[in-house]
Amino acid sequence: MKILVVGGGGREHAIVKKLSESKKNPKIYVAPGNAGTEEIATNIAISVTDFDSLVDFAKNEKIDLTVIGMDDPLVGGIVDRFEKNGLRVFGPRKNAAILEGSKAFSKELMKKYGIPTADYENFNDPQKALKYLKGADYPIVLKADGLALGKGVLICKNFEEAKTGIEELMIDKSFGDAGNTVVIEEFLEGREVSVLSFVDGTHYALMTSAQDHKRANDGDKGLNTGGMGTFSPSPFYTKEIDRYCREHIYQKTVDAMRAEGREFKGIIFYGLMLTKSGVKVLEYNARFGDPETQVVLPRMENDIIDVFEACIDGHLDKIDLKFKDNAAVCVVLASKGYPLKYERGKKISGLENFEGKNDIFAFHAGTKRVNGDVLTNGGRVLGIAATAPTLKEARNKAYEATKLINFENKYMRNDIGISIDSYD
What we know:
Keywords: ATP-binding, Ligase, Manganese, Metal-binding, Nucleotide-binding, Purine biosynthesis. This protein has twelve helices and 22 strands. The chain is globular and about 60 Å long. By secondary structure, the chain is α+β, with helices and mostly antiparallel strands. The protein has four domains: 2-93, Rossmann fold; 125-180, Dna Ligase, domain 1; 191-318, ATP-grasp fold, B domain (D-amino Acid Aminotransferase, Chain A, domain 1, 2-Layer Sandwich); 327-423, Phosphoribosylglycinamide synthetase, C-terminal domain (Glycinamide Ribonucleotide Synthetase, Chain A, domain 4). The longest helix is centred in the middle third of the chain and has 21 residues, at 239-259. A hairpin with a 3-residue loop joins strand 10 and strand 11. The mean pLDDT is 95. The relative contact order is 0.13. The strands form five sheets. Strands 10, 11, 14, 15, 16, 17, 18, 21 and 22 form a nine-stranded antiparallel β-sheet that branches.
């Protein structure tokens, strides 16, 4: 079986690793991949947004299944393009990927179908947004409507900060067209939890819960990033909360998309906030999270190819999704300066320490191989993950494993999963 994975980050490395463990013994290609995927698959130098070249490659190589890892190609309609060419592909079509591609759309969907979320207003005129903000309660949240690499969310403590935020998003266009529309949202207090689910258009199958750490610095301070670390499962995602979400959020979302003529097949990622007044949806993603995937897939027992195919064929209800009774923690090793300016091309040492291990993993995110050396090639460089019987043990093991890796300007948070100690 031949499989193509589209993407080149830590999430895609985790997907490729899981695919490589399949009993179907697939031959895996990754476009464009990184230095980590290169070790277990064949990297192809094609951009994730070069749909024509990706389709041509899949047709010429007789690829049996393509898995889309990243948001940009999904929102851009890559699944539609592959299907039009008779190619089998895992991921939502363009009209369904809008669930992530437009926060304004997802908020309107939740409002229409009674899915719990924060109060909000959508604006495409900066002056009207500023007028609204003058009478708003603070803190308040500004969200760029479109894709912004997980960074287009601003929490503003007062009107002056909000005004600066509107200028940044809507006038200066810090995130390009993503800021043409801005969602102004009530600030929710509580604990954030991520839940990923496989979806086949009608049915869903939940993966284990996880929790991300978005801020760049310890204590959840600093700028928003794509994610500085994760742990799974979340002890705060209780059976009671799970029951509530199954009744009021998960199936409702799948049914709402189908009712809107936007049948969703692929991954729906639910960003949830556990507030005093109940669970509310912060955001949807239309693909695996990064770095959530790096702690969720190592715990999954199923052959992932079987699950992908069940989603495509509408038979997900026939899959008994199972996860190990253990825990996982991932600590992101970043380039100093991320998410702003940082240097690339620094030599990475110590990766050989992870070879042959089944409880610690070095998931490559921003890396490349040059003349036999692995070099840094992005803001988030590696995700150092570990599994263990408890969250505390997994965290200790992951942080010990970070000491095995060295590169100039290495940076990481030192408090990933600290909040879980009293729950072990």
